[in-house]
Write a structure and sequence with these properties.
The chain has 410 residues and is an alpha+beta fold. It is 43% helix and 14% strand. It has helices at residues 31-42, 133-136, 158-174, 177-186, 188-198, 202-208, 215-226, 230-250, 254-268, 273-287, 292-295, 304-312, 351-364, 374-384, 394-409; strands at residues 7-14, 17-23, 49-54, 60-63, 72-75, 109-111, 125-127, 296-300, 316-322, 334-339, 342-345. Helix 3 (158-174) packs antiparallel against helix 4 (177-186) and helix 8 packs across helix 15 (394-409). It is globular and about 55 Å long.
């Protein structure tokens, strides 16, 4: 009988306070056993109840009454679930949004406890980015984790592909894009096995696969996973729908409506297509009651300490830097993407490009969308890229209805 593979869990106890939990025999078949082991290794006090993300109620947490099919949460009685962000096991090649048996899903255990003796905050979360699909498939755990992990090419083994990966390390220094593409195509299955079964830290993965962290290769990796051309599809749909989206946004009232109008007025003063694209994407966030400034952080070039501190504290996001005295509509000095406090892309041409590549990296690393921007990324995935487009949240379905009403009337 094959032994279960070891699983690493990252337990977030509070700001700048994390702990690793290692399940040497894999994920327990019973959730109570998992909770007991986490409680033991982390010295966490108190009793807990289980919750799950219910797709019938916009993926919100509900008390668990039967075998779960979405996210699982663990909370101290009387306390709400903490915010969620973690890696996912997805189906149909798409990250988690509206889990169902025919669309994407993931399993994450989230834990809330009283403050620890070390001064941790009152909320703790446990993210499980490294469970294998086989270890989760039982009657006690979700049974829909059909992870996209292709087989090795005919005649290749992990060892032979590892040798190709080592060759890649030298070829990336030569900057021969065609050679890199051929080698990256050949080693695709090896990368997916590492992502799915090992859930490596981004910093470690960047060291092993530096060729992936380029605009063309992020786009190529996305297409390997989904068969959809990332950048051409994203920008064509964004440009196609921009005018109609702005008409929909203009009808929004309240504080968000006023913020949207300020964006639109500023955009009208520029003829730069990248400025217009960024403005539409920011307005999209606001329309969906999500805060674009939390996704796209802006710094002054001279404030080196603030830039580094912001990057170090970013789990997933975009940064821009501007020179002193630059106008709002001037092009940033730098635009980059950050994951797990690591700059994975920099010197990008625009914020809109950074957003598209961030989505590509979420797919490449099998991550979930951050909950504060789940609707923005759902629109990009499902309305712009036509991936899993027949399963929409209520909020995105309402936007789609209004958008297509504008298209028909226009």
């Amino acid at each position: 009988m094959a032994m279960a593979s070891s699983v690493r869990l990252r337990v977030i106890l509070g700001e700048d306070n994390c702990q690793r939990v290692i399940l040497r025999d894999g994920v327990p078949h019973l959730m109570n056993d998992l909770l007991a082991e986490v409680q033991r290794q982390c010295n966490l006090p108190g009793s807990f109840r289980l919750q799950f993300r219910d797709p019938e109620f916009d993926n919100e947490f509900m008390n668990l009454k039967s075998s779960p099919s979405t996210h699982v949460a663990v909370c101290q009685d009387g306390s709400p679930p903490p915010p969620y962000f973690g890696a996912s096991h997805s189906t149909n090649h798409s990250p988690v949004l509206s889990p169902s048996h025919s669309s994407s899903s993931s399993d994450t255990v989230i834990l809330s406890t009283p403050a620890s003796t070390s001064g941790a905050s009152s909320e703790s979360s446990l993210e499980s980015p490294s469970e294998s699909a086989s270890s989760l498939k039982s009657s006690q755990w979700p049974s829909v984790f059909d992870v996209y992990c292709p087989s090795f090419p005919s005649g290749e083994t992990a060892e032979s592909l590892e040798r190709v990966r080592v060759t890649l390390l030298s070829e990336v220094k030569k900057d021969n894009e065609q050679t890199l593409k051929v080698l990256m195509d050949k080693t695709f299955a090896l990368r997916r096995h590492e992502v799915i079964h090992e859930s490596p830290l981004i910093a470690d993965f960047k060291t092993r696969w530096p060729a992936l962290f380029r605009t063309k290769e992020v786009s190529a990796e996305f297409e390997r996973i989904t068969t959809v051309p990332l950048l051409s599809r994203f920008f064509s749909k964004l440009d196609l729908h921009s005018a109609k989206l702005l008409k929909v946004f203009a009808k929004r009232g309240g504080v968000q409506g006023r913020k949207i109008m300020q964006l639109v007025m500023a955009m009208a003063q520029s003829d730069n297509v990248e400025v217009k694209r960024e403005s539409v994407l920011r307005a999209l966030c606001l329309y969906l009651n999500e805060e674009p400034d939390d996704l796209i952080r802006e710094y002054m070039v001279s404030d080196v300490a603030a830039i580094q501190q912001g990057i170090d504290g970013t789990v997933l996001g975009i940064y821009t830097t501007r020179v002193e005295g630059a106008e709002v509509m001037d092009h940033p000095a730098d635009v980059g993407v950050v994951i797990e406090g690591v700059v994975v892309l920099e010197d990008l041409a625009s914020v809109s490009l950074a957003i598209a590549l961030l989505l590509g990296l979420i797919y490449a690393f099998n991550l979930s969308y951050p909950p504060k921007f789940r609707y923005t990324f759902e629109v990009i995935q499902k309305l712009f890229l036509d991936l899993d487009a027949n399963k929409l949240s209520h909020k995105v379905q309402a936007l789609k209805t209004k958008l297509f009403s504008e298209l028909e009337s226009g």
